[in-house]
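Troubleshooting log. The previous run stalled partway through. Resubmitting the same four chains, unchanged.
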Amino acid sequence: MTGQRSPEKLLAEHNIKPSYQRLKVMEYLSSRRNHPTVDEIHRALVQDIPTLSKTTVYNTLTLFARANLVRRVIVDDSEAHYDVLTDCHGHFKCDSCGRIYDFPLGSDLLGEEGLASFEIRERNVYYRGICSTCRD
Amino acid sequence: MTGQRSPEKLLAEHNIKPSYQRLKVMEYLSSRRNHPTVDEIHRALVQDIPTLSKTTVYNTLTLFARANLVRRVIVDDSEAHYDVLTDCHGHFKCDSCGRIYDFPLGSDLLGEEGLASFEIRERNVYYRGICSTCRD
DNA sequence: ATATGTGCAAACTGTTTGCAGCCGC
DNA sequence: GCGGCTGCAAACAGTTTGCACATAT
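Second attempt completed without errors. Output:
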């Protein structure tokens, strides 16, 4: 059972030097799994680290993404969102409240027959609509 | 059998005034179904319409998208692609050649149980990887 | 004559890059 | 002391906006 590794361990396993800002970013991502944007992460962390720059958040996330520690999620034309969960799941973005929900994805379900002999490296599935809370 | 309507008809059906540039954009989209970017459309059409501005292409595509004549396809973090086919299909982008392939999508296949009582308005499915041509 | 489409230029936004200074080992 | 992390400022790319001119009916 691998479960929830600590930010320190995660970084160590991927040979990433555990600087204070990196640890904080990873900590933020793994606690609140809100698919935050760069801006949200930055706004949240500047409180503890007043000198934190957005550049560092960008650098850090790019680094994490290359190491497959996080995934850049496109649910939205404008900003990129980041997700620590690397297992295969879809995203649903509510047009009304803007919240992003995860939903499980079966493995081989889609019409992937059409992609025989293609090497699939990444699957992105995102829906848009109105969530149950906003419909009430 | 509805099949291929002419650009004129398509625009008329959606109460869109058939200006020269609009017709040309629609014509381009429906002939080469290449999921072109704004830039590609513009580059292609300036040849016939030397005064054509990108702004007009943007305006036109936004107009078409609102009328559900085209779909904005996000397969790529940077530029938006446009697609006349509004039926449900997935996109595969080759990391090597950059080409975008369509593939059919079954209807209710995914793990959508998790989204019971959500109102799904739009499904986006895109994969990344290496296409069969580039693997050889 | 009026409403609407077009296109230039400038603004905007998210992201990237260059580079000087700083910190930890 | 050295490698490399940080963060400012400037560059960048795609897109949007403001506005004057052109165009069609």
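Takeaways: The radius of gyration of chain A is 17 Å. Chain A touches chain B through 36 residues (CB under 8 Å).
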